[in-house]
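Comment thread on ticket #2218

A.B. wrote:
> Attaching the input chain for the structure job we discussed in standup.
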Amino acid sequence: SPMASATAQAGDRPSLIVRYGNFLFRYRNGVFPAVMAAIFVLFPPRPLFGDWATDRWLDLAGLAICLAGQGLRAAVVGLAYIKRGGVNKQIYAARLVQEGMFATSRNPLYVGNLTVLAGLFVIHNNPYAYLLGGLFFLVSYRAIVAAEERYLRGQFGREYEDYCARVNRWLPSPKAIGPAVAGMAFNWRRLVIKEYGSFFSWVVTALLVFAYQAYTKLGWPGAWRSLAWIAAGLAACGLWAAAIRALKKSGALRDPAGGWSTANLVKAVELYRSDILFTLVLVTAARETRFRQEAMASRLCQTSIIDSLYTVVALARPDAALENLAKIENVIVTKQY
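C.D. wrote:
> Ran it. Output below, let me know if you need it in another format.
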């Protein structure tokens, strides 16, 4: 497979940090939230200079940092998206993405993630959380990047080496941003489809930290009003994410660059009808497998629909159906060898 061959080219025995990175790449969606929750629970929030009123300014600063990280992620996804989830939770890349924000940093999405995490730790504000959380996530993302770099070197060879020599691993180069994004269209629909989950995750985390702060400051009797507002915010976030997910699943919200949309299909049908080659168009869509010789799934889908239509007609007109079957059988018999 491509993943196995790339790994073999990069060396038979990966280093410890690469193995740790491969582990996190596979299980980070469970490991990262668990570690974050454990750190926040074990080390409660502390007010800035011992004053909760002053701490509000620190909360605003933390939110600003989170928004900066989200803004970077939005720029990356809207301009040139790269699938960071791999294939079957293993590192995989069909091509080396070098355009958009990837022309300014080799890991702009991870830089955005670390920035959002930094903002959440600022909102929480506990020195032990800063130390342990910062150390864990910095080492973890460095390990994931090491694993990805090992794979990419084996997969793309000289092309990737040239890319590394030209582009920073972490911090985006300000001078490269303008030329990198010049002439590129921003895909807002893809941004919503691909990024709503990340946005939902950190906003919910921030709201939970605010709830933790209110409880730490006032206790249950005095914090109920703040907790009620936070609960309303959590409910609103949940409804918003559920609505986007439903639109995405129904096909009403799709990435125009990700495949055929309903509008594209309608245009294609109108184009073919303009040639007066036929009066009825049967359009089907199916999710194809990655490794295939032809579009078999969509063909099977069309065949199933045609069989169903034929069965309905045959039941409505049995005599004509039997007559046509006899004609087909006679033709087949004469062609047999």
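A.B. wrote:
> Thanks. Noting for the ticket: The chain has eleven helices and no strands.
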